[in-house]
Design goal:
With about 80 residues, the chain is mainly α. The chain has a domain of about 35 residues. Helix content is about 60%, strand content about 0%. It has four helices and no strands. The two termini are about 10 Å apart.
């Protein structure tokens, strides 16, 4: 990654993660019409169905920020070490 000497010239989040601004609407389109029974469906029949949709969304909601923080931490350290 290129070292940035001037923090004012550092890229902003939407430049690094352009898909982030569309994430909420993308997920909402998939789940907006689902009822609670569907949102909470789980099954041991298929590996993918061991987590309900609600559980997956909860995981995604926290994972997205954790994923970004880890990457920002690394990016931020590179900027401050210059």
């Amino acid at each position: 990654m290129k070292k940035i000497k001037n923090k004012k010239k550092a890229p902003i989040g939407r430049d690094i993660f352009p898909e982030y601004s569309n994430l909420y609407s993308t997920i909402w389109e998939e789940v907006r019409d689902l009822d609670n029974r569907t949102m909470d469906f789980k099954s041991s029949e298929w590996e993918w169905s061991r987590w309900s949709i609600r559980m997956q969304l909860s995981h995604m909601a926290s994972l997205i920020f954790r994923w970004m923080i880890v990457r920002w931490r690394g990016f931020s350290l590179k900027i401050t070490m210059v």
